[in-house]
Amino acid sequence: MKRRRTARTKRRRGGRLKWFMVLVLLAAGAYWAASELLPSREHAVPEWKGKFEKPIFVAGEVMDLPALDNGEGLKLPFSVIQSEVDPHVRYEEESKSVILTTQRKLVWMKADDMKGKINNKPVQLLFAPVEEEGELYLPAYLLKELYGIEVHEDAASGAVLLYRAGETIQMAHVQTSSRSKDATVAMRQDSSIHAPILAEMKPGEKLRILDEADDWYYAQLDNGYAGYVKKKNVALDSLMTIPPLEQQEVPPAKQKWQSKVVNLTWEAVYNVAPKPSSIGELPGVNVVSPTWFSLVDGQGNVKSKADRAYVKWAHERGMQVWGLFSNSFEPEITSESLSTFDRRMTTIVQMLHYAKLYDLDGINIDYENVHTKDGANLTQFMRELWPLAQEQGLVLSIDVTPKSNSEMWSAFLDRRALAEVSDYLIVMAYDEHWAASPVAGSVASLPWSRSSMTRIIEEDDVPPSKLIMGIPLYTRVWTETEEDGKTKVKSKAIGMKKAQEIIKEKSLKPKLSEKTGQNYVEYRENGALHRIWLEDKESLARRVEMAKSLQLGGIATWNRSFASSEAWDVLSKIAE
To answer: Which of 108, 167, 271, 292 is the most exposed place for a label (fewest CB within 10 A)?
Structure first.
């Protein structure tokens, strides 16, 4: 009997233990379930808190550097403006020069100097740029005027919220269904009720909606705090749009011009300027570009061969005059003249002076044979010239080559950026085969010319209407001789009239080359083979049709003196 009670007791104890374990598991499960359902009450502080007195936020993201001062004296870091507002702001450390450019404004300032220049006119700044701990800080009031940015400063947290011109922000406010006067809504670090709380927000507090994820909004408060808020606790208000930058009106004369298709011809001026009376009529041509101006030294000085009589002649015939300014194809003086703001401005001021003195309608920039390292400085030169040319009502164009790997003739050109700071890019769609080419070939075959234009349109996003296709009015006579079992090649450039004289003199019959889209002739003389890919009325007609099919801004021909009389009638079809 005693043994039986003991076994029964053990069975009771075992049963109780099992029930106890079940209860423990149930309690644990209930606690786990409750913890999964209950929101976290843990609080967290943003990483930026305490790091900066005046943190800057762009689209909810805190920047690496803070702002300085406040109110009208607020200053923003150069690097933040460069990364978030204008990647082209420039600081030249040697002279401590700050250069800011827009389509209509060129602003120059120096660190710790209240004197500056806007469009090369002296101004007294309200606040000077300052340098602190190796970073340059720019006056916000000037940045607002120039770029149309807006800033919101929060007095309590010191936060500076930066907005760009044209930016649209969805405004909202906090709401809750609770009737408690002390009710708050949590802003959390992540889109989960288990994420730590960044802020306890009261109903009615303003929010800026930055993004959304499922049932959550990613939003920002005036004090800079940004985090996730349940959508049910947010009421959307109106959209706030930062006013876009006002587009200044284009001068009437220039506006009228921009509706035209360009038919330009370059006037090559060497030692003696051509007498206008000797030129004759140029039917269809609406722009002449004489090669009058050239860079003469590393200080940026300009030499002029301009002729008032030529301008008067062109204007009387309804043609505009875009004076060509070249770098003389001298890479070293080009490098020096582009290296500093002062030297670039020397060139710009002189060119604008000549434009006014000779009543020019535009300036055509022709920089060739340039070190690749100087490409960015050339683009900066154009950025600085652009607003001043606009102010003077000048049409600004720059000559570019087809894209290639050539360092000195192509790689230095940032065609995408140059298109943004000029009215036109004139693509010199020649020389496919250049003077010293090791093999004979066309100066500009039709397929190659088309490819030269379409690559810039497609790869650099340049609108076709901003592109003018350069057309050669010359060709080359290629001479091939056999020496030691190898073909030796040399060439000589000739104009259209000279090519026709050779054909007549040698009784040649041109044949169409399907590969080049041009007529071709060859003949033997003195043991050598002479080959010519012709520029004639047929090839010019195809080029005009190409320009029209690509919807280009026009054509430009190099150069007037190479043309035959029939060339102008064919080229005039560009306007039809």
So the answer is: 271
Phi and psi dihedrals of 379, rounded to 5?
Answer: -60, -40
Judge contact between 289 and 364, C-beta under 8 A.
Answer: yes
CA distances from 316 to 6, 309, 347 (A): 130, 11, 29
Per-residue pLDDT of 39-58, as tens digits, reads: 999 999 998 998 999 999 99
Query: Which helix (H) or strand (E) is 336 found in, with range?
Result: helix 331-338
Tokens 């806007």 locate to 118
431, 393 Cβ separation under 8 angstroms: no
Give CA angle at 207 (201, 210), nearest 5°: 125
Amino acid at 453: M
Q: Which two tokens stand for residue 524?
A: 């033997």
Residue closest to 325 by CA, chosen among 365, 296, 360: 365
Largest CA distance in the chain: 144
Using alpha carbons, list the distances in angstroms from residue 470 to 229, 304, 544. 59, 24, 11
Q: What angle do CA 487, 433, 335 make, to 5 degrees?
A: 120
Kindly report, residue by residue over 324-368, the tens digit of the pLDDT.
999 999 999 999 999 999 999 999 999 999 999 999 999 999 999
Could you tell me the pTM of the whole model? 0.89
Here the tokens at position 263 are 């038919």
Structure tokens at 207: 């929010």
Give, in order, the Cα–Cα distances in Å from 570 to each of 181, 352, 565. Answer: 84, 34, 10
> Cis bond leading into 431, ω under 30°?
yes
The SS3 of residue 344 is helix
Q: Where are the alpha helices (DSSP H) in 93-151?
A: 140-147
How far apart CA 193 and CA 191 sit, in angstroms, is 7
Q: Is 132 helix (H, G, I), strand (E, B) or coil?
A: strand
Contact 546, 469 (CB under 8 A): yes
| 478-501 core/surface letters (b: 16 or more CB in 10 A; e: else) | bbbeeeeeeeebebeebbbebbbe
Tokens coding 74:
């607020």
